[in-house]
């Protein structure tokens, strides 16, 4: 691949006469010797959805922390409506201007919707919280912004979609009309995404402006009018979305020409008919799935997809021992796997990259070496206590094998980008040299180059004769699969051999047939 020139690939959006809702002007930020932002500028106009994209480590999170007043820039300035941003210490002034709805919700699940909307500013009477007034004001706020949620509902009982809308309503109640959405669709299925996008469009027409952060580039084209690309802590380009086709957008993000380079299984030779079966799933049933059966051969990559609510994740977690199925049988190399038993799954030769890397895949306070070697501690030392030298040696091996960008095996995982954290999770899954690798949303929330690196691992372990199950809603993940099983409402509804068309697979996921007579 050829490297891009340093000049922007599209002429930046020309300044407009009316003041921008928010501007970052030549903003710079350093953490010790590391430059997190280098003279970055951003201009978001009223009523638009403006995408902010870039690989993990490009500087997006640092820029957001400066735009929301959580950090002060070392150089440059932030302006709202043409006026300088308030002092960092004036939190109320920042809340009146900007809010961020993060991928991991800040809603307190144990409290009601009304309590979350007015937390730390509840109406009072006689020194006591006026519960009636708070519920009344919450209902009025929800009705004003057309958010169909009960004010007395427990927040933890709401859908992810509803919790996001409550967070948006809370931000708007402070007076903010500039909302940053950080990976808002990461935990939503197709219908929920469509509803969220409709609501964003309605809010735009009512004068709300959005900064939209997503690794799902197709969403940029669906919802945004303008896009800014960061790369290596620098501003690369700002342009109307219509002027930046997907290939050019990826080129700006990566510094290389072309799209996502992943192996398409359609070009792969078929496995011999007598290839041994590595994994057998027979009539598996659980809380949100029933009657699921399929086989997975050695050297085969099978995709399992469907809407978030289809049951696909639960099936994968049952295979990996993370949860017990109600009935059915899972066999690995002919041996029955006991239900809901992670150590047994590991012992039977199953490796897993779980859905939630922060809670199930990593100990963020520990090093790369400690995380990567967690499943093989008994092999590295007596009584499960591995000497640091052996752990670090294994950590260095995995850093080299997976291209993990870290200062060394002792680098604490919390200090890595999302893509490199996911590579550490992959390292842990591969540490036991599994015969069956179960990958649940393996590229969710990671940048383009990290996706390529993670999917190249799939091709490598397949060539070693291992079986791979990729459980994902990402089309790029599924292109590496020899066949794709589609789950709909808890059952396997269709199977697609490699070479499927996007629209056919998407229609099947949504429960629609494009070829009915």
TrEMBL record:
SUPFAM superfamilies: P-loop containing nucleoside triphosphate hydrolases. Keywords: ATP-binding, Cell inner membrane, Cell membrane, Membrane, Nucleotide-binding, Repeat, Sugar transport, Transport. It comes from the Bacteria. Residues 22-257, 271-514 form the ABC transporter domain. It comes from Paraburkholderia susongensis. InterPro entries: AAA+_ATPase, ABC_carbohydrate_import_ATPase, ABC_transporter-like_ATP-bd, ABC_transporter-like_CS, P-loop_NTPase. Gene3D superfamilies: P-loop containing nucleotide triphosphate hydrolases. This is Monosaccharide ABC transporter ATP-binding protein, CUT2 family. SMART domains: AAA. GO terms for molecular function: ATP binding; ATP hydrolysis activity. Pfam families: ABC_tran (PF00005).
């Amino acid at each position: 691949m050829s490297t891009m020139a340093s000049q922007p690939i599209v002429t930046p959006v020309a300044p407009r006469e009316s003041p921008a809702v928010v501007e970052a002007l030549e903003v710079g930020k350093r953490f010790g010797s590391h430059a997190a932002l280098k003279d970055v500028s951003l201009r978001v106009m009223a009523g638009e959805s403006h995408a902010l994209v870039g690989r993990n480590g490009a500087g997006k999170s640092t820029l957001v922390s400066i735009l929301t007043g959580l950090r002060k820039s070392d150089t440059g300035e932030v302006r709202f409506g043409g006026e300088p941003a308030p002092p960092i210490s004036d939190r109320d002034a920042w809340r009146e201007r900007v809010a961020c709805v993060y991928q991991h919700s800040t809603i307190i699940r144990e409290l009601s919707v009304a309590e979350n909307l007015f937390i730390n500013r509840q109406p009072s009477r006689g020194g006591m919280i006026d519960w009636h007034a708070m519920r009344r004001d919450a209902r009025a706020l929800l009705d004003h912004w057309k958010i169909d949620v009960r004010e007395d509902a427990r927040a933890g009982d709401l859908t992810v979609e509803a919790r996001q809308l409550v967070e948006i309503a809370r931000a708007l109640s402070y007076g903010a009309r500039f909302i940053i959405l950080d990976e808002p669709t990461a935990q939503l299925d197709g219908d929920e995404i469509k509803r969220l996008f409709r609501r964003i469009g309605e809010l735009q027409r009512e004068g709300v402006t959005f900064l939209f952060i997503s690794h799902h580039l197709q969403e940029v084209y669906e919802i945004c009018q303008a896009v800014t690309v960061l790369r290596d802590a620098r501003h690369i380009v700002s342009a109307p979305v219509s002027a930046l086709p997907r290939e050019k957008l990826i080129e700006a993000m990566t510094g290389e020409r072309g799209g996502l380079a992943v192996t398409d299984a359609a070009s792969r030779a078929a496995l011999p008919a007598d290839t041994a079966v590595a994994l057998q799933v027979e009539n598996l049933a659980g809380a949100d799935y029933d009657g699921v059966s399929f086989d997975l051969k050695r050297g085969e990559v099978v995709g399992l997809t469907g809407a978030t609510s289809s049951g696909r994740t639960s099936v994968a977690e049952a295979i990996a021992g993370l949860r017990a199925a109600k009935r059915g049988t899972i066999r690995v190399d002919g041996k029955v796997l006991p239900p809901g038993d992670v150590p047994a799954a590991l012992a039977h030769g199953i490796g897993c990259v779980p859905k939630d890397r922060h809670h199930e895949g990593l100990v963020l306070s520990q090093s790369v070496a400690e995380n990567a070697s967690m499943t093989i501690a008994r092999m590295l030392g007596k009584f499960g206590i591995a000497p640091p030298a052996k752990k670090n040696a294994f950590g260095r091996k995995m850093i080299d094998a997976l291209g993990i960008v870290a200062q060394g095996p002792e680098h604490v995982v919390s200090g890595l980008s999302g893509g490199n954290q996911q590579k550490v999770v992959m390292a842990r899954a591969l540490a036991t040299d599994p015969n069956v690798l179960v990958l649940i949303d393996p590229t969710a929330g990671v940048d383009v180059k990290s996706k390529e690196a993670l999917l190249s691992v799939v091709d490598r372990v397949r060539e070693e004769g291992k079986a791979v199950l990729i459980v994902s809603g990402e089309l790029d993940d599924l292109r590496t699969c020899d066949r794709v099983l589609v789950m709909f409402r808890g059952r396997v509804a269709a199977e697609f051999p490699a070479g499927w068309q996007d629209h056919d697979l998407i229609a099947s996921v949504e429960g629609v047939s494009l070829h009915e007579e």
